[in-house]
Amino acid sequence: MTKAIAISGLTKNYPGGVQALKGVDLVVDEGDFFALLGPNGAGKSTTIGIIASLVNKTAGRVAVFGHDIDTELEAAKSCIGLVPQEFNFNMWEPVSEIVVNQAGYYGIERGVALQRAEKYLRQIGLWDKRRVMARELSGGMKRRLMIARALVHEPRLLILDEPTAGVDIEIRRSMWQFLREINQQGTTIILTTHYLEEAESLCRNIAVINNGLTIASTGMRALLTKLHVETFVLNLAQALSSAPAIAGYRLNLVDETTLEVEVTKGQGINHVFDALGKLDIEVTSMRNKTNRLEEMFMRLVETGQL
Amino acid sequence: MRVSAQYNAFKTILVKEVLRFARIWVQTVLPAMITTALYFVIFGNLIGSQIGNIHGFRYMDYIVPGLILMAVINNSYANVVSSFFGAKFQRHIEEMLISPMPNYLILLGFISGGLARGLVVGVAVALVATIFAGVHLNNLLIVVLVVTLTSSLFAMGGLVNAVYAKSFDDISIIPTFVLTPLTYLGGIFYSIDMLSPFWQGVSLVNPILYMINAMRYGMLGVSDINVGVAIGMICAFNVILYAFALNLLRRGVGIRA
Question: Is B6 at the interface with chain A, CB within 8 A?
Fold first, then answer.
């Protein structure tokens, strides 16, 4: 399978001795929807900056669809669409001009650029705002404008650096749907986010970077199956005065109608329901205490191990 | 990038730059016209009438080439320094940096923007000059050549300033403390024949002296400097600054981490 991204031994030293990347290795297959996770300052944005040639690397190799950025930079750049973390468009330009100009920088003829700008602004729900100055858009609209701008040259690889930060849940969900469609049409997507349910919902593969190193790179499903303990929160119909005892399970009564159950790998949740039913305890609803990926992420970042 | 794609990319920057200064013409084109009119009224009419002729021309007519070129210099520089620094400050320079455009195309795009504003303002100032003074034309080719080369040189100067600038204060230091004194001492209002030999020698170090004299030769047919030498110097300055500016972009100074 073609590699959309192949990174090996990537390092970045900033003046003053700060070593942002200490040897990142990363492979993203063509067509993937890939999550690049890590705490603040881990090196995600530096890695993305190097891929997009906004940051000069110190050492290592980066290839985009087989184009080495040291020897075939223009070809590599042509493959990439970037949605950065910070707003980086001219606030004093109209929305459509920002998108059309971006197409122009990729050498696209103006007539085609206008058609593409209309297509993507309509898809992203900004066509009605095409003549509005960018500074007048809401935060969510500005994020969507950056997505339309990144897509206007129809890149094979779309890199999104926290695209839904500060966006309300309704718009976030519509952006998820849009990104799924783009991915299904063949665009490889790399996503960084601090909303881990977003990564779990959208991405098939995942890498975690911490302290400038790749500490995990695997399939999302494979990662989650390594979770040893999950905690479920059960809402009860009747109040209890103490947590019931079920052999092999640890239960904790949070308040009189809320019960937490720890289920270790290999155990089933059905047995808990059976036991509670025999005790005449009715469960009205259930949810995970924390997002599963969040638990794995915290474990990885804190211990460096799965 | 294919040649046609490079042409589209170049045209995009040029149109964007022209629209930028055209939208705010009150701030970009009009001030030079008003300033020039004031120069003509004060220096040309009120004081100039006391000075008499220089090299056979009325003082008012003698200062026209220098005033046009001063407007071209200031506006070419101001256009690129403000546009490039604004793009850097708001980070939308990244739109170009992530694209496959080669660095020389980005440089040529900004130079052309500065050139466009320099030419528009130069023509506007020349029109103002026709109201107050006689606008002579000795050699159109030399005038066009000098205006174009001078404009592109200072457009590149503006880009270099913007690359190094870290704040808005930094983009006004060079125009205030370097450009304005050199321009005024470059012989806009006088011939260096009027200076003592020592100051004549000092004036020869000023690159703007060569530009103003070449322009004056193109319009009036008189110059303190050999016009071939003057144009040669301007070409040399262009080549040196082009190579320097391109190297800055290639290394990503001030724009890439």
Answer: yes
Q: Which residue of B has its CA nearest to A84?
A: B94
Determine, for residues B12 and A90 on separate chains, whether the beta-carbon distance falls below 8 Å: no
Residue of A nearest to B88 (CA): A88
In chain B, residues with a C-beta closer than 8 Å to the C-beta of A75 are 100
A106 → chain B, closest CA residue: B99
Residues A72, A201: one domain? yes
Rounded CA-CA distance A141/A86 in Å is 13
Residues B96/A54, Cβ–Cβ less than 8 Å? no
The per-residue pLDDT for range B81-97, each reduced to its tens digit, is 999 999 999 999 999 99
For residues A258 and A130, membership in a common domain is answered with no
Nearest chain B residue to A54, by CA:
B256
**What is the rounded CA–CA span in Å between residue A202 and residue A220?**
10
What was the ipTM of the complex prediction?
Answer: 0.86
Distance of alpha carbon B6 from the chain centroid: 26
Q: How far is CA B230 from CA B13, B42, B86, B89, B235, in A?
A: 31, 29, 34, 37, 9
Interface check B4 vs A, CB under 8 A = yes
Nearest chain A CA: its distance from B252 CA (Å): 8
Q: Helix, strand or coil for residue A146? A: helix
Decide if B256 is inside a domain: no
Q: Specify the CATH number for the domain of residue A130.
A: 3.40.50.300
How confident is the prediction for chain A on average, in pLDDT? 88
* Distance of alpha carbon B233 from the chain centroid: 15
| Judgement on whether residues A149 and A59 belong to the same structural domain of the protein | yes
* Higher pLDDT pick, A75 / A2: A75
What phi and psi values does residue B57 have, to the nearest 5 degrees?
-115, 150
Structure tokens at A65: 């669809």
- From residue A126, alpha-carbon distances to A114, A117, A160 in Å are 14, 10, 19
pLDDT at B172: 86
Query: Do B98 and A110 make contact, defined as CB atoms within 8 angstroms?
Result: no
- A86 shares contact with chain B (CB less than 8 Å): yes
Domain boundary (A190, A219, A248) is at: A219
User: pTM above the 0.90 mark?
Assistant: no
- Residue by residue, what is the 3-state secondary structure of A169-227? HHHHHHHHHHHHHHHHCCCEEEEECCCHHHHHHHCCEEEEEECCEEEEEEEHHHHHHCC
pLDDT tens, position by position, A32-42: 999 998 888 88
Q: Which domain holds residue B136?
A: 3-251
Chain B contact present for A19, CB below 8 A: no
* Burial tier of B215 (Cβ tally within 10 Å: 0-12, 13-18, 19+): buried
Residues 6+ apart with CB under 8 A from B163: B84, B88, B245, B248, B249, B253, B254, B255
Contacts of B86 in chain A (CB under 8 A): 90
Task: List the 186-225 stretch of B: residues with Cβ below 8 A of A.
Answer: none
Pair of tokens at residue A167: 């966006």
Residue B114 lies in a domain: yes
